[in-house]
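hey so i finally got around to running the thing on that chain from the lab meeting. sorry it took forever, my laptop kept dying and i had to restart like 3 times. anyway pasting the input first so we r on the same page abt which one it is
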Amino acid sequence: MYCATAGYARMRDRLRDHRVLVLCGEPGSGRKATALALLDELTGGKVFRLDPRHGVDEITEDALQESGGHLLELLAEDVRTESEPRPARSGRGEHTGGARRPATRLSELHLDRFGELLRGREAYGVVLVENGELADRLLRGRYGMYCPPPPADEVLHRHLWHRLRAEPDEALGAARARARRPDVVRALGLEELRPREAARLADHLARHWRGEMTDGELLAECASFVRSQAREWFAGADRPGALPEALPVLNAGAFRIAVAVFDGSAYSLAAEAAELLAWELAVTLDPDHAPGRRLFGTHAEHRPVQARAVLEDGELDLGPAKVPVRAVRFQGEALAGAVLGEIWHGYHNVRGPVARWLRALCDDARPEVWVRASVAAGVLCSWDWIHGFRELVVPLAVTDEPRARMAAATALAEAARDPRVRPAVAAVLKDWAGSGEDTLVRTALLAHGYVLAAGSVPGSLDALARVVRTREATDVDVLVPASFSVARLLASGEPEPVLSRLHQWLDDGRINLANLVHLAVIRALSTRTTHLWGLREVPELDEHAARPLLVALLATRPALAPELARLLRHTLATARSGEAALEALGGMLRRAAKDPEALGHVRAFLPRLAVDRRDRDRLRGLLNELVRDRDRPLDRSAARRMWDAVTEGANR
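ok and heres what got predicted. didnt touch it at all, straight out
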């Protein structure tokens, strides 16, 4: 049932010319089947397997069969850097405590020698090498060729045909249709199956057709594919347990974990994070020998293959603008969760270095880094609250660094996504809010801006108000994070209950709640929407990411304009907030003047701010001041259009 891969004819020609061929690829990609097919074709089925305990440099003429084909699959331990020792082996192929011999790095000189031995025997040989630095080097030589997996759909079809050939004619079509069913595709969580996986799926589908497997059992088996991949990646990754032997595999494992955290983000961020994690893993394994960094290891074009990932062009949202990036992502949505789950649940000793690594990333000044790290920390906490809370969240929450506290709040909110963990998160936030410890109070306030911890927008607003009511009206340590969370709730996709509550707080009469409202309104005027996104998707705001939140709300929820205008007028008319609000409004008008679509929304909104003469005088004075600004004069045409909207509204 072999399905020929792309380039098969060129592989055959190169093997025929050089007598030896190196096939590079990942396990399960069909390398071995391709090698056997090539050798079978050139030798008429006379194929032998060489002992994998011996390297290419150890092969002798006596080990080769006359006119035969020879397959050698290099063990992971043989893909070492120069001068790394290789453990001796017993006759059973197991590691022993015997003497070590220097490892020989596979080179083209060894392959030249191997080719001459094969030529002398009228024989052929294929060496299998896993993707990595060695494969990268050999692919640039005479003998190396990349072995891409054959089309998974064709492999699946052939295996299904083989298993269902005795069944009725409609069996094959029904099984293929079931493979395309959305629930099966979601359960697999992989974009492209490897040949080995396609064969497994064909077996499951055939059994399902024959009634030997229920729908639930089929989906469970499909979901096991990504778990099997993750287990294969990390099983015994630190063998034989000392540096530098384990370092290449640790580097690969660290890269896979980094891609799980930065899936879909810039490759440079994932690669740098992987280096930091590799160092943590290495010093945990061997504290006496801190590793250095390879400068010219596996090329960026080949490294993602180690993580079943791809590089592609993407965009990174920086708020004011989007910039092009070279992004890395898994070839399957389920791989990120499977990788994190495997290392967190399967290997307790890995938790320490991973926790230290994530905490360090949470202290990075770039939101593209600390947000991803804090979300990952939250996921790990939801899987083991007792361990994750103490190791990941508490150290971040008690620091004086605002960014670390925001990361702790983000992790708590992400953990609260799991309904079973949400009560524990809510209890922690309640304790912190009443603790009197400023760092913990501020972290709790920030966490309630994500909705998830309290379970609803009204619940989050209640939690924020309880803290603010107990503090002084001018307590900026509470008002600043609380107002940020209120603004974030406005951007959560449910602005209506937020605006209703803000009006209630103004009517309440307490100065501390009124100050919270004023600060939140000023933030809505001045803060870009992208800086206020939480952990819930709000697709309607996507195209307004670079605009202030108030403009985004006017564009997506025009019916809210009267309530927004009432809040802004109150903030402008209040002595203690008016000056700051007027400055923020001026900034919003400056941005709108350069954005035709935003200008249209602002012009429709301004008449609602000019209810009486005092309002109109305030707006006219602001526009005049902006136009006469020597350093950054507002465009006169845009200012005229804004004022015309005000006067036209007054005349109506």
